[in-house]
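I am still learning, so would you mind making up any protein sequence you like and the C-alpha cells describing how it folds?
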Amino acid sequence: MGQSITGSRYATLDGLRGAAAMIVFVLHFHALFHLPLIAHAHLAVDLFFAMSGFVIANAYDRKLSSGELSWQHYFVLRLYRLYPLYCAGLVLGIVALAYRLPASDWRDIASAVPASLLMMPSHAPLRTFSPYPVKFDFIFPLNFPAWSLFFELIASLAYGLFFRHLTTRLLIFVMCVSGVSLGVAAYTTGLENGATWLGFYAGFARLGYAFSAGLLLYRFHRPACRPRSMLAIVIVALTIGLFFMPWPMLSHASADLLIALVAVPAIVWAACRVEPPARLLPLFAFSGAISYAIYVLHVPFAFIAQDLIYRSHLLQHPYSVSAVILLPGIVLLTWCADRYYDTPVRRALLARSRGWLAARPKRAATDTTVPQ
C-alpha cells in the first residue's frame, strides 16, 4: 500500500472512464477487432451514469447547498462541459453519413439536424450502416452514442433544479422504482436499449438507477483517506473483464440485471476508495481526459476511416484498419480534440461569462448541510 491522500480528484475514476469509453468503442466495432459480440459491454454506459452522479455530487453538492452556485449557473456549467464536444461529434457525424449514404438520403440527414443542434432527440430513421439496407430509428441518428448524453443532460438539469428536494429517502425511492423498471426492461426488450425509440424508456430506468446510486455513494462516502495502491489497476482490469466475460450460469438478462444493479455501484464504491500509485497518475489522468471525446467521436471517426480506406484501396484487407488506423487514430484524435478544441473552447466560454458566473456569497452555515 502506498501513501494516503486526500483531495477532490479521483484518479481511479478517471482510469475507469477511459476504460469504459474504450469498451464502448470496441463494442460498436467488435468485428473490426475480430471479436465476437461483447456480452455486457453496453452496461459501460450505466457505469458512466453512476460515475457521473458521484463526480457531479463531489463537484457541486456543497456549492448548491450553500447557495454559492445557483441551479441556473450550475446548468450553464454543465452545458459548457457537454456541448462543445457533442457539437464536434454532431458535425463529424453529418460528414460521415453524407459521405457514406447516397445523395437521396441527404434530406433525411438534414431533417435530423435542427433537433440535434439543440441536443434533443430526433425521429429520422437512417441507413446508418449502409450498404446494409435497414433503417435504424436511433433517437440521435447523426451520432447514435449521443443518446446517453441526452439522458446525462436530463440528470444534470434534474439534479440542479430539484437539488434541495433530493433527500436521501427520495434518491433511494428513485433507485427502487428504477431498479424494478430495469428488471422489466431486462426481461422484455433488454438492457441494450435506450439508443432507439423502441427501447427509449429503458434509458430512463438505466439513468435513474445508476445516477441516483452515484449521488448516494458520494453522500455516504468518507473521503478523508484514500491510499495509493496497485489495487486501482486491479479495479480497472476487473471492470474490463466483467463487461467482456460471458456468464454461462445465468441467462443474458439475469447477468445484465446483476451487473447493473450490483456490480456497477460496487465498482464506483471501490474506485473512490483507492488511488493509483504516483507514477501512474499521468496515465490515469490522460485516460480520464480523453474519455468523453472517445465516447462522442468514435463512431463518426470509425465510419470515415473505414469508408476512406475501403474506397481508396489503401489496404489490401480493409478490416485490418482496426489495427492500423482505429486504435492509434482515435487516441490521437481525442487527445487533439481535448487539448486544442474542447479545453480552449470551454475556457473561452467561462472567461466570457466570468462575471455572470461569479460565485455568490455563502448562506448561513445552517443552510450548508446535504439534504437527508
